[in-house]
Design brief:
42% of the residues lie in helices and 15% in strands. It has 261 residues and is α/β, with parallel strands linked by helices. The chain has a single domain, classed as Alpha/Beta hydrolase fold, catalytic domain (Rossmann fold, 3-Layer(aba) Sandwich). The protein has a seven-stranded mixed beta sheet with strand order 1-3-2-4-5-6-7, with helices on both faces. The longest helix is centred in the first third of the chain and has 18 residues. The two termini are 26 Å apart. The model has no long low-confidence stretch (mean pLDDT 82).
């Protein structure tokens, strides 16, 4: 068996490449699963192995309770992947605020190890934890938010096939998963003032041209490495457009190669 048992539960790897030079660790968006990002392995070179994190409460982990807080999520990710981080260089990719915050805390939790490992940080459709945009999301009263409001928001931003939302049971689970993921996001407190410049890696930020403006420059304040910013045509889920997906994966490949990972 190539992956340890705990890794098989947490990680989806559509194409295992034990001889890969680098790993791309993908974190899905709030309310989402692994199906789209796990398939990026077909678009990336054979030198990159794609690992997509599968959170509890969805897909093969549907019967598991949702994570209670950000700490429990991060502890699971790091307990399973820390050894992998030390074995090979890697890059993190996450879309939307929920996933970006998970790998932010993974980086903070193991900054010393990761600094020696060599890694790249790719944020999509989101801003950094200390921005006003994220602070406003944290103030949303989840328990008082009606399912109809959450569903309307999910339909507005896209990313979920409309035919799935027509199924009552699937629709109910999508809304529940989104709310639980947002609840977890609200348990993560990030005090930039106490961290000085916590990251040493390069950060690449992507955003859809028709999405709401994100304070992408806020990422620049968090790292001593280089930061770069790109806009691709489309809305919040611009990355699901085939042409953008091809551009994004090619660019990630170039970033990894240029970083010497």
């Amino acid at each position: 068996v190539y992956f340890p048992l705990g890794m098989e539960k947490l990680i989806v790897c559509a194409h295992k490449r034990p001889n890969a030079l680098c790993r791309l660790v993908c974190f899905p968006w709030a309310g989402g699963g692994t199906s789209q990002l796990a398939q990026w392995s077909t678009l990336l070179s054979n030198s990159i192995e794609v690992l997509c994190v599968r959170f509890p409460g969805r897909e093969a982990r549907l019967n598991e309770p949702f994570a209670k807080d950000m700490t429990s999520l991060v502890n699971e990710v790091t307990s399973v992947l820390l050894k992998e981080f030390q074995e090979k260089p890697f890059a993190f990719f996450g879309h939307r605020c929920g996933s970006a915050k998970v790998f932010c805390q993974v980086i903070l939790k193991h900054a010393a190890v990761l600094k020696d490992s060599g890694f790249l940080f790719i944020a999509s459709g989101t801003t950094s934890e200390h921005s006003e945009e994220i602070l406003s999301i944290k103030r949303i009263p989840i328990s008082d938010t009606k399912d109809e409001e959450v569903l309307a928001y999910i339909q507005k931003i896209g990313g979920t096939p409309p035919e799935l939302l027509r199924n009552k049971d699937i629709r109910k689970h999508v809304v529940l998963t989104f709310k639980e993921d947002l609840r977890v996001l609200q348990t993560f407190s990030f005090e930039k003032a106490e961290m000085d410049i916590p990251f040493c890696c390069d950060i690449t930020c992507f955003n859809g041209s028709d999405d709401i403006p994100h304070d992408l420059q806020a990422w620049q304040e968090l790292t001593s490495g280089d930061t770069s910013f790109y806009k691709l045509p489309g809305g919040h889920f611009y990355l699901l457009e085939p042409s953008n997906e091809i551009f994004l994966t090619k660019h990630i490949t170039r970033c990894i190669e240029n970083a010497g990972l």
